[in-house]
Here is the input.
Amino acid sequence: MTILLLIRHASNDYLKENRLAGLIPGIHLNEQGQREADALARRLESVALDAIYSSPIDRARETAHAVAQNQKLDVRIHPGLIEVDVGEWTGRLISELVETDAWKQLLAQPVAAQFPGGDSFARAHQRIVAAVDTLVAAHPDQIIALVSHADPIKIALAHYLKMDLNQFNRIVVDPASVSVLKFNARGPVLERLNDRGERLFEKKDDSRKE
Here is the structure.
């Protein structure tokens, strides 16, 4: 059985302002986000991770680094974990977009919609599922963490739960939260969703990392 931790990056100023960050480089964790990332690392001290992968985007890499330091692991960058490209809406306030027909289409039928000049959710779905399937296959009987973004994580969870992908926004994934999928012979099982608690598992033997 492979245990997969899907972690959303911690807070940043674009998130605080309800602004679409998309693929903008150089958006770093703010003070709140750094506190969240540090708390996340402490929460995961009881988990002996075998590997940690991150989206190439700065805010995800910084969150992954906080966890990796405690785990004595290197962060491995995986392009399949990247954020959805919001195209022409990059940097825009959500409040400026909510009344547009394009935004309403994204909410009503996201799988059939595309950000102007950017990604479609269908493409994002293919990308994140391919990444998860590849990494789960590469780590049999191990515990791995994937640090990504809200929409890719929600899409992945909806896929493995066999939900209608048009309903993926019914799933809540908060900053610095952990959702846990266990992949066994019968298929994926959701163990935890949007977890921001103190401890995830009982203490495991991590002597192999010394």
Observations:
- Residues 162 and 171 are 13 Å apart (CA to CA).
- Residues 121-138 form the longest helix (18 residues).
- The chain has one domain: 2-192.
